[in-house]
Amino acid sequence: MQAEEIGLKQIGIVGLGLMGGSLALALKKSGSECRFLGLDHNPKHCQEALDLGLVDEIVDSLDALSHCDIIVLTIPVDGIIAVAQQLKPANPNTTVIDFGSTKAKISASIPTTTRHFFVTAHPMTGTEKFGPTAALPDLYKGKVVVLCDIEKSGKVQQETAKALFQRLGMKMVFMGAEEHDRHAAFISHMPHALSFALANAVMRQEDPESIVALAGGGFKDMSRIAKSSPSMWEDIFRQNKTNLIDAIEAFEKELKMCRNMVENEEWKALNGWMQEANSLHDIL
Amino acid sequence: MQAEEIGLKQIGIVGLGLMGGSLALALKKSGSECRFLGLDHNPKHCQEALDLGLVDEIVDSLDALSHCDIIVLTIPVDGIIAVAQQLKPANPNTTVIDFGSTKAKISASIPTTTRHFFVTAHPMTGTEKFGPTAALPDLYKGKVVVLCDIEKSGKVQQETAKALFQRLGMKMVFMGAEEHDRHAAFISHMPHALSFALANAVMRQEDPESIVALAGGGFKDMSRIAKSSPSMWEDIFRQNKTNLIDAIEAFEKELKMCRNMVENEEWKALNGWMQEANSLHDIL
Fold it and tell me: CA of B153, closest CA in chain A: separation in Å?
């Protein structure tokens, strides 16, 4: 299926926050004549999504989405696992795509009988904001999306998901769910832990206001994601526990090395260590 | 002295990089009819600064700047201490302003005989880029500048520095050099150590390219300052060693807390800890 063939379709969005709302905005902007059905347990978010024109209709159950062509799950990762147990598409060509930040537990938890309906994906984009009002039409454009264990999805579902991500202007990367989770721990989950820890280290000082009054761009960038949703990140940390701990350990080792060089005044070695860090930007 | 009284003046810039170059661009943009004399040990940077119109003339010694109205030191912090020993303004109203990221060692190192010429300042701005080509006309605009131990500067020098920062559109904050260094360790120096450590943690993995291929905005923000100049940061870490170690310890304690909660599956406590981190943004 080509991207242009996604014409007038019914798209169900479960979770009317930043990711789900941005998806609707992006598809509308791309000229897709889709009808969007939204489901969210938060009535305020439902009303906002309607008011902002993100969705055409609010439904009150997963059953009401069973005839959709595409159902996108943009809810916290524990919620995705719960929904995957209940979702039984009535249409054999329905494609269910989850946008969770972890993939191994989700991929493994989908019942065998419905596994072919699902495509497990992780769009590597977001902001620290959440809720329908945070939605941005260009959130996905030019960004990477990781498609995991794609061989477990049906042929129609594989093609539908690829066409959708192509229409969003995303770069598709394919890998196994386990590999994704190891990589995501380093590139996203552990950095979130660092940002939360940095914010708390400052907040516990005697006079955080006076410290924060001096914040320049570096601190603002490093602490931005410490604004992220605790309930969303609690689920991610739970689902990717082992990889997260490994990544935190790798980081702690480096920071300890830095601290030891400063304590022992090994300035030449410290300079070399910083030069190694500079080399990240040859590949980023 | 009012900002508008900084008319046709000679301004010496020692260090033709991001900070010095941006200062010249900002003053030119503000309509100041200043003549800029530049000094830098790097001949390539001297030529670039001339070619880019950052300075009007390159001089080859500190003596050639001794008649300037204002001399700005935008060089690494160890260099500032070395220059402060040699600089002997011939004009009693000359104001020497250093832009170093540490303040206590610099403030204490200036000879008593010339101390009144100096204003020790720290503009809380910058980017990870360096050299004259990195200069930006709006680098200082709307940002905070910390003026330290201002009572040790002469009256004329205090007024000149205030008028200069006012013209740059900066928000002035006054504090002692020791207090500045404690705050700067938390808001700038320790976050740089984290960013370098994060970059190295990823670079030491088996396949850093595959990890980095998944980088979203969060990782890019967190690793941006790991691109910073090692020689500049070596000096800063040396000069603010004790405060930096204290700040790293405070951070390590938080990260350990996070890791323990993940290991012990204390999800409710972890959620509360993240909520505390969120509160930073009430004051940032």
Answer: 22
Same fold flag, B3-175 and B180-283: no
- The fold of A3-175 is Rossmann fold (3.40.50)
B214/A270 touch (CB, cutoff 8 Å), yes or no? no
Q: What is the CATH T-level fold of the domain A180-283, as seen in this structure?
A: 6-phosphogluconate dehydrogenase C-terminal fold (1.10.3660)
What is the pTM for the complete model shown? 0.93
The ipTM, to two decimals, is 0.93
**Cα–chain-centroid distance for residue B130?**
12
Closest CA to B155 of B114, B113, B100, B95: B95
Query: Cα(A184)–Cα(B199) distance, rounded to whole angstroms?
Result: 15
User: Nearest CB to A186: which of B205, B224, B254?
Assistant: B205
How do the domains of chain B map onto residue ranges?
3-175, 180-283
Kindly report the nearest CA distance between residue A193 and chain B, in angstroms: 7
Q: Which residue of B147, B232, B234 is the best one to mutate when testing the A interface, meaning the one whose CB has the most A CBs within 10 A?
A: B234
CA distance to partner chain B, nearest, from residue A5 (Å): 28
How far is Cα B120 from Cα B151, in angstroms, rounded to an integer?
11
Close Cβ partners of B249 (under 8 Å, ≥ 6 residues apart): none
Beta strands at B118-123 and B10-14: parallel, antiparallel or unpaired: unpaired
Residues of B in contact with A231 (CB under 8 A): 271
pLDDT at A3: 38
Q: pLDDT by residue (tens digit) across B145-185?
A: 999 999 999 999 999 999 999 999 999 999 999 999 999 99
Q: Residue B1: pLDDT above 90?
A: no
Task: State yes or no: pLDDT of B43 exceeds 80.
Answer: yes
Residue B115 has pLDDT above 90, yes or no: yes
β-bridge mates for residue A175, sequence order: A148
Q: At A257, list the tokens.
A: 């090395």
